[in-house]
TrEMBL record, chain A:
<feature type="domain" description="Tryptophan synthase beta chain-like PALP">
    <location>
        <begin position="56"/>
        <end position="378"/>
    </location>
</feature>
<dbReference type="InterPro" id="IPR006653">
    <property type="entry name" value="Trp_synth_b_CS"/>
</dbReference>
<keyword id="KW-0028">Amino-acid biosynthesis</keyword>
<dbReference type="InterPro" id="IPR036052">
    <property type="entry name" value="TrpB-like_PALP_sf"/>
</dbReference>
<comment type="subunit">
    <text>Tetramer of two alpha and two beta chains.</text>
</comment>
<dbReference type="InterPro" id="IPR006654">
    <property type="entry name" value="Trp_synth_beta"/>
</dbReference>
<keyword id="KW-0822">Tryptophan biosynthesis</keyword>
<dbReference type="InterPro" id="IPR023026">
    <property type="entry name" value="Trp_synth_beta/beta-like"/>
</dbReference>
<feature type="modified residue" description="N6-(pyridoxal phosphate)lysine">
    <location>
        <position position="89"/>
    </location>
</feature>
From TrEMBL, chain B:
<keyword id="KW-0028">Amino-acid biosynthesis</keyword>
<comment type="function">
    <text>The alpha subunit is responsible for the aldol cleavage of indoleglycerol phosphate to indole and glyceraldehyde 3-phosphate.</text>
</comment>
<dbReference type="InterPro" id="IPR002028">
    <property type="entry name" value="Trp_synthase_suA"/>
</dbReference>
<keyword id="KW-0822">Tryptophan biosynthesis</keyword>
<dbReference type="Pfam" id="PF00290">
    <property type="entry name" value="Trp_syntA"/>
</dbReference>
<keyword id="KW-0456">Lyase</keyword>
<dbReference type="InterPro" id="IPR018204">
    <property type="entry name" value="Trp_synthase_alpha_AS"/>
</dbReference>
<comment type="similarity">
    <text>Belongs to the TrpA family.</text>
</comment>
<dbReference type="InterPro" id="IPR013785">
    <property type="entry name" value="Aldolase_TIM"/>
</dbReference>
Amino acid sequence: MNYHVNEKGYYGDFGGAYIPEMLYPNVEELRQKYLDIMNSADFKKEFDQLLKDYVGRPSPLYLANRLSEKYGANIFLKREDLNHTGAHKINNTVGQILLAERLGKKRIIAETGAGQHGVATATVCALKGLECVVYMGEIDIERQAPNVARMKMMGATVVAATSGSKTLKDATNEAMRDWINNPVDTHYIIGSVVGPHPYPDMVARFQSIISEETRRQLKEHTGSESPDYVLACVGGGSNAAGMFYHFLDDQHAKLIAVEAAGHGVNSGESAATTILGKEGVLHGSRSILMQTDDGQVIEPYSISAGLDYPGIGPQHAHLFKTRRAEYVCATDDEAMQAGLLLAKLEGIIPAIESSHALAHLEKMNFKKGETVVICLSGRGDKDLNTYMKYFNL
Amino acid sequence: MNRLKQLFENKNKPLLSIYYTAGYPEIDSTVNIAEALEKAGADFLEIGFPYSDPVADGPVIQESSQKALHNGMSLKVLFERLKELRKRVSIPVLLMGYVNPVLQFGVENFCKAAADAGVDGVIVPDLPMYEYEELYKDCFLKHNVSNIFLVTPQTSEARIRKIDDLSNAFIYLLSSSATTGKQLDVSQSSETYFGRIKAMNLKNPLMIGFGISDKKSFDKAAEYTSGAIVGSAFVRLLGEPDYMNKISSFVQSIKGN
């Protein structure tokens, strides 16, 4: 089974480039050039250097002893939370800014939900001295004021998306509209493994550093590069795509993706896309998305802004349909408890997104000596207000 | 022969097509507006079926889509209304909207319902040429529904030729790469672009859309093509009080006499 994109831009039934003609020249240029640029010696050298000196890679693979003891397995945390700007998002923005530079683009646009991708984009734009415009839902701007301030400090313009539900989905629509209206000098840095081909593949490749390092580090720790389980949370799915990438053909490793169930799968307030969604097209690719019978997109809900997205990337839709990965979900409450537990047992406060992956440990039964890797995709600093409110701290 | 082809073959004046969103401003207004537009002298109609995430549209059409969805408009409801419309309106009617509602309706069902309702053509901006050819074309042809493609100033000549081959009604020339509702930039560069496409001598007629809002921009477009399409400016009018009584003068103000 092939889990990667084919030459037409599809993962099985999913993917493609469902874009209006106005976006075709930009997306086509990217499609023609992304692999050549990414494989060039000059790009690789600068990318590796920045990941090392600027992002702080390799991120540690940490054997969480007290967590392991509690669940009866050897649980390793891949510490993407220790990256510069506090999450895995920067792996992708560093890659895309170098690509944009080599395409001769002068202006960068991005969408953001919680603000993590917006911050990671503003960061690399400051690094390269490029103009940066970040679209963010009006409601998210209010909810995530510190991240808005970070972006502004680094010179980015933050534009409120006031259409639709005024959250991530609408910020993405606004970024696409900007790109339509600025077809020549602008590059759109999409933050997840969504969007028209080649974005899902390109972003997954930039994030694949996560599993590349993990295999090497696991071998150092345990003598084997192949764990029994690999877990990651999924909104659009970029940290999971990077965490799964080098395990896709390793059938020994069971892959588990954890979606956000919000107040419960059947509560009407959820973001569990694989359970609640149907096949369709959103933001330029065919995938699985939450929608009405009439094909209108349904607003998702999760306590975690990073998982609050009505679709998943097309590769995830393919991994779900072929059953290469198992898609499960965790509620707000389960995730919050898992976040608190990690803080108490390991002294690590995780992003609420990552807490969803941790929450699934409660539902697993391990055999003695089994090895688990969990992608700790981000740190919880940005979520302190939510934790404080939830636990009355 | 379908109504669209006939219209283009028999035309002796620049054609005016008007876009508006189905179910806006009220769920029951769609047929009445069509009738008023035909009476006022519009040559054909583009009726938008609303979508929650219209990325190619500016604020005016976005808001009309949201209102229409709120009013209960859907493809199913629209096809029912169109049967009524065809009893009262004889000019060509196109449907315009995004691909996801079409996928959920089912492509085959969609083409059949469109044909049964007397729809002459369809514009789906986010349906790419490759997917159209592989998965949709046979179905469209079988039901004699024309698919209309868009061309922008950045579309390459080779791609325009390919679009010309796949088209059988007209080609929708975007005045610039933009979302809907921006003012037409009647600059040297857009005239060079219109002239360049005209000089390609394509087998399909051309219509210019996006940014056409008044007589001046309509006349400019008609210098190079068969006519033009007005969307956002008309949808804005539909948001005004007493809009039904303003339709006739709106069309006249653009077409002149």
